């Protein structure tokens, strides 16, 4: 059997609950305890491939949730791939797209697990299998909405002192211009700041949003509706600050539309939102051809999802720091060994000396945290 072939014989789904060290507030909702869906894929030789479904508890970021993803994986995604031999992990995507709309995060969890399984089987780092070239990646932090400007300023200063290379500030109406002004005044003109609105505004706010230009932001992420491209194009015409799209880019064709319409100048790639690594690589390559810089977004992942993001971030066009902060920024204790760490220059090492994602899942800890478990196999299709 050719070395890059993958056959998934078995998938175990587990839900774990990991309390965040601090509640994470974005304009569309707050997360306190992260409900995380972990997948463990196995082939006939007993090789494991771990992955994480990034869907949240509520449909405030995307229509998917952990509960819809669980259903989608068991009912439609797993039956399409279990027991079937693929010539390589890049072949799953089209099979999962055929007459199967949406559910990208559910599809991505299985697809990314297949890439990890392939990397483990070939005994090469996942980053290499994906075409990564970097040994370490530049890291940013995403700061949730704070109760006061003072609290935010303190968090930004602390983040800069830790070495973070990009500080992303969540904003919403009522916690935007004054907050950003206070931060800029405190940290000076050179600090790498950006804002993320998670769709909190509309074109009625055009004059308000134009004032963002005074803060010298690297970009403003997803100011308008989660599925919009047309209005973002109108807004970009009136803004000097580059728009970066997150929620809106759910496929390669959306990235193509963004370029055609001029809806933004930077893309946040989240493999979960795009339906997996194959789609992420396609968007990455398309952006290379159109001189669009990309960076890797985050979804408050555990060390498993983080590992996948680190591997992806090692590709050439990830030229801006990603939301790939170290484990300790999110959780008291991660579920992988070693935990993800960042050096004082704000860099995270890509684990190129180990096969696959480069970290081991702490099974005892996962077992202790598991609140729901289901096993799917080639023999019992549910
Ligand atoms: O918009 O990027 C976002 C977390 C949950 C949902 C949406 C977003 C985020 C983040 C977190 O910004 C980034 C991280 O994981 O550090
Ligand atoms: Mg975002």
Task: Give your account of this protein's structure.
51% of the residues are buried. This protein has 382 residues and is α/β, with parallel strands linked by helices. It contains 14 helices and 17 strands. The protein has a seven-stranded parallel beta sheet. A four-stranded antiparallel beta sheet has the order 4-3-2-17, sandwiched between helices. The chain has helices spanning 66-81, 92-97, 104-122, 126-130, 149-162, 177-187, 206-210, 230-238, 252-261, 271-274, 277-289, 303-313, 327-330, 363-369, and strands at residues 6-7, 10-26, 29-42, 48-53, 85-86, 136-138, 140-143, 166-170, 193-196, 220-221, 243-245, 266-269, 294-296, 336-337, 347-349, 360-361, 370-377. Helix 5 crosses helix 6 (177-187). 2-succinylbenzoate binds at residues 26, 61, 142, 196, 198, 246, 297-300, 323, 325.
Please specify the SSE layout and strand pairing.
Blueprint: E1 6-7, E2 10-26, E3 29-42, E4 48-53, H1 66-81, E5 85-86, H2 92-97, H3 104-122, H4 126-130, E6 136-138, E7 140-143, H5 149-162, E8 166-170, H6 177-187, E9 193-196, H7 206-210, E10 220-221, H8 230-238, E11 243-245, H9 252-261, E12 266-269, H10 271-274, H11 277-289, E13 294-296, H12 303-313, H13 327-330, E14 336-337, E15 347-349, E16 360-361, H14 363-369, E17 370-377
Parallel strand pairs: 7-8, 8-9, 9-10, 10-11, 11-12, 12-13
Antiparallel strand pairs: 1-5, 2-3, 2-17, 3-4, 6-15, 14-16
Helix pairs in contact: 1-3, 5-6
2-succinylbenzoate binds at residues 26, 61, 142, 196, 198, 246, 297-300, 323, 325.
């Amino acid at each position: 059997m050719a070395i890059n072939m993958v056959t998934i014989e078995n998938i175990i789904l587990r839900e774990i609950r990991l309390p965040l060290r601090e509640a994470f507030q974005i304009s569309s909702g707050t997360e306190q305890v992260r409900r995380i869906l972990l997948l463990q894929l196995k082939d006939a030789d007993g090789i494991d491939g771990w992955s994480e479904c990034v869907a949240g508890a509520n449909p405030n970021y995307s229509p998917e949730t952990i509960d819809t993803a669980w259903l989608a994986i068991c009912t439609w995604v797993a039956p399409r791939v279990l027991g079937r031999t693929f010539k390589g992990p890049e072949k799953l995507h089209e099979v999962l797209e055929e007459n199967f709309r949406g559910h990208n995060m559910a599809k991505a969890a299985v697809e990314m697990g297949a890439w990890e399984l392939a990397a483990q089987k070939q005994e090469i780092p996942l980053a290499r299998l994906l075409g990564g070239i970097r040994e370490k990646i530049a890291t940013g932090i995403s700061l949730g909405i704070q109760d006061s400007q003072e609290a935010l300023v303190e968090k930004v200063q602390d983040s800069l002192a830790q070495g973070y290379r990009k500080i992303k500030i969540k904003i919403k109406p009522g916690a935007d211009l004054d907050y950003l002004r206070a931060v800029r005044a405190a940290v000076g003109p050179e600090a790498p700041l950006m804002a993320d609105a998670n769709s909190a505004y509309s074109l009625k706010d055009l004059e308000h949003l134009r004032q963002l230009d005074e803060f010298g932001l690297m970009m403003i992420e997803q100011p308008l509706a989660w599925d919009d491209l047309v209005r973002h194009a109108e807004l970009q015409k009136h803004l000097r600050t580059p728009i970066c799209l997150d929620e809106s880019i759910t496929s390669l064709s959306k990235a193509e539309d963004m370029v055609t319409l001029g809806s933004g100048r930077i893309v946040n790639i989240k493999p979960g939102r795009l339906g997996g690594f194959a789609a992420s690589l396609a968007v990455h390559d398309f952006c290379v051809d159109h001189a669009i810089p990309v960076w890797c977004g985050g979804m408050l992942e555990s060390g498993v999802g983080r590992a996948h993001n680190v591997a992806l971030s090692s590709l050439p066009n990830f030229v801006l720091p990603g939301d790939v902060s170290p484990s300790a920024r999110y959780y008291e204790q991660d579920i992988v060994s070693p935990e993800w760490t960042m050096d004082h220059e704000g860099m995270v090492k890509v684990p190129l000396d180990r096969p696959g994602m480069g970290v081991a899942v702490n099974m005892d800890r996962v077992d202790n945290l598991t609140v729901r478990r289901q096993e799917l196999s080639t023999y019992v299709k549910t």
